[in-house]
Design brief:
By secondary structure, this protein is α+β, with helices and mostly antiparallel strands. Helix content is 40%, strand content 21%. It has a single domain, classed as Trna Endonuclease, Chain: A, domain 1, CATH 3.40.1350. The protein contains 4 helices and 5 strands, in the order αββαβαββα. It is globular, with a radius of gyration of 13 Å.
Amino acid sequence: MKTASAKAKGRRLCQKVKETLLSWAPDLSGDDIVVTSSGDTGEDLKLSPAARAVYPLAIECKNQESINIWAALEQARGHQREDAFPAVCFTRNREARVYVAMDLEHFLRLVR
């Protein structure tokens, strides 16, 4: 796969995650979550303070057939801030669902 195609595939996942997050938080606007360019370092989705209050996550998106979840989690932890839990959103070709991987204790803090 060419680099441009791989980056476009990643952007599509980021856009899908953004739209899903916005649909679950009607008080947020489209400007509260921004898909970063693939060349930028850091989180794949930049959250405004309002979005971070709803979703305290540092999100890394992976759209790959075979994912090294440990490397992806390490990458997400590298983007972690004090006010955010690292999370990896991932899927693969022809898969409608998007999955999330994160530390169990962070997950429990979110749902509690």
